[in-house]
Amino acid sequence: MTAGTSRRADPVSIDPQLRGAVPLVATRFLRYLVDVDTDVEHEPRADVLADAAALVSFATHRRPGTPAVGLRALPTGSDPASESALLVVTDDMPFLVDSVANALAAAGRGVSAFIHPQLVVRRDADGALQEVLDLDVDEDRPEGTLAESWMWVRLERDFTDGGDAALIARLEKVLLDVRLAVRDWRAMRTRAGDLADALAAEPPAVLGTEEVADGVALLRWLTADNFTFLGYREYDLVTLDGEDALVPVDGTGLGILGPEAGIELTETGASRSFAALPAASRALARRPELLILSKANSRSTVHRAVYLDYVGVKRFDASGAVTGERRFLGLYSSSAYTQSVLDIPILATKARRVEAALDVVSGSHDAKDLLQFLQTYPRDELFQTHDDQLVDVARSVLHLQERRHTKLYLRPDDYGRFMSCLVYLPRDRYTTAVRLRIEALLVDAFGGTTVDYTARVSESTLARLHYVVRVPLGRGLPAVDHATLEAAVAEATRSWQDAFASAMVARVGDAAAAPLLRTYANAFPDAYRADFGPARGVNDALVIEQLAPGELSLETYEPPSGGRNDLRLKITRVGPAMSLSKVLPILQSMGVDVVDEYPYEIARALREPAWILDFGMRLPDGEIGARSTLPERFEEAFATAWDERTGVDGFNELVVTAGLRWRQVLVLRAYARYMRQIGSPFSQRLLEEVVIGNVRITRLLVRLFETRFAPDGAADRDERAGAIVAEIEAALDDVVSLDQDRILRTFLALIESTLRTNYFQSDDDGVDRSSVSFKLDPRGVPDLPLPRPAFEIWVYAPLVEGVHLRFGQVARGGLRWSDRPEDFRTEILGLVKAQEVKNAVIVPVGAKGGFYAKRLPDPAVDRDAWLAAGKAAYREFIMSMLDVTDNLVEGVVVPPKDVVRRDGDDPYLVVAADKGTATFSDIANGIAGEYGFWLGDAFASGGSVGYDHKAMGITARGAWESVKRHFRELGVDTQSQDFTVAGIGDMSGDVFGNGMLLSEHIRLVVAFDHRHIFVDPDPDAAVSYAERRRLFDLPRSSWADYDPTLISAGGGVFARSLKSVDVTPQMARVLGLPPEVTSATPDVLIRAALRAPVDLLWNGGIGTYVKSGAETNADVGDKANDRIRIDGAELRAKVVGEGGNLGLTQLGRIEAALHGVRLNTDAIDNSAGVDTSDHEVNIKIALDALVRAGDLDESARNTLLADMTDVVAAQVLQDNYGQNVVLGNARAGAPALAAVHQRMIRELERLGILDRALEFLPDEEAFRARRLAGEGLTGPELSVLLAYAKIALTAALADAPLADDPYFRSMLRRYFPPQLVDRLGDELDRHPLREQIVTTAVVNRLVNLAGISFIFRATEETGASALDVVRAAWATIEIFGLDRLWDEINALDSEVPTAAQTALHLEARRLLDRATRWFLQTRGGSLDVQREVDRFGPVVATMAASVPDTLRGKERERYDRLVDRFVAIGAPAELAGRVAAALDVFALLDVTDVCLRSGESPETVVPLYFATSERFDVDRTLVRITALPRGDRWSSLARQALRSDLYAVVAGLTAGILQSTPSELSSTERLALWEAAHAEGVARARSTLDDIGTVDEPDLATLSVALRVMRNLVAQGVTSATS
User: Where are the alpha helices (DSSP H) in 1247-1294?
Assistant: First the structure.
């Protein structure tokens, strides 16, 4: 690029011939990178090569003799314009680097690297670069080569408006000046020498000999390397238009005064700068003096950026008149400033003249002082000062020495361009502030535009300041009263402390002032003393005396000279410096513009320093609310923000514009933060702008909130609130923007949806709370993400934000320390869905809380401080929730203080540990104790007095029940057979560690956590178990602590921070990797671990590792594990155990299940933890009643609690076991029940209990597809449906007084450990949650026994209520001993195949199904469980065992076949026989009824009943009814109706035969006698039934005819019996 062709460097493009030059140039770069201390010192080699390439590309073309200058952007990170590179290619010459650097500084451009290699190059005639030679420029160069200087300068961002073009133009001008100066310097030096010779040879006659000799000597001294010649030109002194003018002589210009430099001339061709001088100054040109020694009007662009030194030599004609001037411009070299004045021509003469004028004897002490004065006098000033001026100054200064006086000496420039000011002052008074004050005085006095200064401070008692005050060219210097100005300068140097001491004494008296002056006399800094008078200092000192360390004193005041919107804030504080990065955001958040800031450190003697910050502020335009109270509100808001008791954001502007106080603003901020958490599409900034821009509505919103919840406004609260709402809605009509309208209406809706708040509460000292909590009714919250909880508490505080979601009044769930500031409610909502499912097994429904701790220290720096801050946030969160929660005192609900309740009683709030809060339960319980909360340490389970989940291993043990069940279905006994495992977690973790110790046959082949990957390709089960146990028992451990000698060949422990891991053949085999894979990154290795072909994948960690192929990583919401996550279809494990939460997405589980993996859900697998916690809470509630009554002390309570640990664990694990049994049975029957499940889901949606989309259950189309494929719901889907079956039944029984029914009341005692039941006795019946406990126990037991769809099918087919079904089912279970039967079946675990157990369970369930429906159809809704058990139980108990022996014919054959089938799949023969007879035993219900009506004994009726059934082929008809389709509700109802009718027919026929035949006959005889009596009807019936029997697939109509025929027989029998 040639200069001027482009203002920005082109993209890098290098001629192939020049590519070899890049490494060479880069090597030259490295010389500077090593030597120069810059940020590029550690740049990677690739960057250096890239920069070198850019420079080579840039240097490709350069017009000969012309520099090339360009700029190139250097993108850094996300900012493409953060830096740029200046590229310069020019001929090598002196002064280049200095000159370019000075030009960049003058342009205000920061330089972070300056690299300037000198290169030998070859170019063609057009300037095209042909070659870069590996030579230094000072070496011998081949002919035709050039020495060039290349520059690569990294520039910081240009924050000015100059732009690249202006910078390049400046640099081109500088490089031109350098070129001209270097080119002509010899010629200029020669001119000076020639001129000296000429003057010596022909001195002007008008001049004295000494003057000429001094002039000649000076010129020769200049040529002796004491002057850097930069420009030369000759001028003629002429008269133009009556005025003297200097006209350049053509052809005489050299260097920067040469023709190329572009000297500015007037229209007449004269020097413009000379013409601009005042007439008196121009007249000096004709004064007969040889030399003009001065400073030029401009700074040098070459070498040093100082004003150019001007040496003029006048030209005279024969008459002695001045005819012109020979002008040299340049810079005195350093030697001119270091040589003795006695060695420098002109200066030596001046020294002699001054010595003579002062009558100083050579060699005397005075002579030495004078010489010292001259040697140290500003050298430039010495050249320019006339002898008489110098004599006056010397005399005065020599007289002044060692005297503490202030003196000002002024020397005007001969041409009126500047004033030289010398100030001598006492050294101890010289400070920057004094210098600046003097400077300001001088600039003001002379009307200066610029000022330069130098300072000299030596061992002398006086310091010296030299100022050069420049005025606009041509204006001249104003007349100034020297004495007045000198007095002002002296005043500026006076001590502030003296006046301060006087003011302090006047204020407090001598006695009190003494200690204060010792502390404050020298405490105030120069800046403070410069800005404020001593009286103000006294005031501030007295304020500081009253402050405690860290305490603020605030003063808001209007400056006397300010406008209406100007305000100042003074902040005083004792302690460390206040950070502006903290102060300024607070002020800016309040809507003010900070226009200036003055910080002052008050360094008190022997005491902690204090700080004063004084800010100038400008209020926003427009309305300023409640102006009279603004200072008070402003200071109050600032103080609370400084103390971090309120937020720092745009809402604070409402303090200024809306006249609100900080706590009123807090309300709006809290609602706005909640809006962000519930997914508002509007940004925080927009929410702020809307409330700020609609001040009237904002004030009304605050009024509405205060009206609704102020404790003292009860009388007409709702009426007043309604009026305010109407006013708000009317005002909203005037809001033009739709978005603003939506935002303001959301604020209104949130206020109206608020049920309670702690806003009006204060602490014991009456201080307002900095936190605010709202209890909300989610039904009124617009656009709330589903599912909507029943209740919600939102907490906002400067240190924490939190939310607690409850799906019912009695609800529980953990509190999570979230790391998601913007959407932790979304995280909690996702968790509470799982919690709701998980809580189906316990008394409370689902709840979940989460908080985000703000302003945390960096845990990497101070983990203890980080944890302490987290605990403080947790504490604030807990307190804020309890603030709005009712209490129970002696069984009476007590509302919280100063809380207006807009809902009913709500005293049940229970929390638990979760991620990040595992050790916080004692904190929560401590707070509950402080609040006197009725639950005490039952408030938060898992505290130090409670059940330690990790010590119990309960969560892992519960999940292990699922694992054992899955493996039993595969025919593997995990407790006696080895199996391979891949794991997520490490042995220090609760769930992973405990889980991996639950079987000694675990062969853990691979595991990983956030730190390591563990691979043991062929572990010894016993050895690895022992080592895992050792790790688990350590206080802390990681996989790195695993004994490497115990790891099998090819394995190891690998840090996840490694770049890659060597993959051994053994690792590849066990992980299922291709043999050719020999290395992998840790991420690849973890994905392989997840895909490993193992028996079990055990998740005991945190994170989501498996999704479905239909989901994206963004859908998962766990960014940390995006790189290692796999799809469910990729899982090759046979079984997945989910000890940890959220390890798989639900869609990922379903996908895995559809690909043959056996798994439930995390909610099912790890529910034991929450189940244990619920038992703990309910046990503590019961025990605390004894403690409060004085019947049990605290120590005994805690001992009893601990003694029950194992029993509680057993009860909890039984729940996990039961759920796995019901799910195993459900999986076996899922295809057959697909239509039933489809209808059940549809009904749950209709009731508003279930949202299938949220739970990822199949839609209608997906169900149809599965039914066509012969598939049902997967295990994960059945897990969800199981939970909702329990949730729905619990909801249906919510108002059922089950606990009042003596039969169900027994469940209360079965729920608690026997030790507690024995201790409490009837006191248990007064448990506050007895209704909920009984209901939960009944629901769990019934659904686990009867199956997922049992209640739904029963209510669908009979129309009965859920309560009726429960009573009927409970009666059935008791009458037939089904619970004992199921226990027998379950006891066969690992003794018989699980398939056999499942078959037995399902067959037994058929008895429960039919008997329950029988009771519902025959007893209606008034069923009394105890009465029915008493009625039917004895007959069943007596006759059930004999039923199989009573069967005859085909029924016996059917029975035998079923027994054989059960035995064939592994069932014990005796149990198989009992279960196979279940549906036959069901007939004992009809038998009992017949017995009661007929008066016959069961021994008589049973044989007759089954003989009748056999005679009319009832068994075959039942089979055909069962085979009918049940794809919809009506088909199911029809099947049920036919079956019920058929049983009724058999019972009716039996009753008719009993009634019409003699009792002394056998059953066979009585049946034969009855048939003979009804031969014609029986014959017709037999004929019809035989015909129907020939139909291959009888339908509903066919079977209905068969039943009609049989009903006719019953009718005939009844008629004959009564005739």
Answer: 1260-1268, 1275-1292
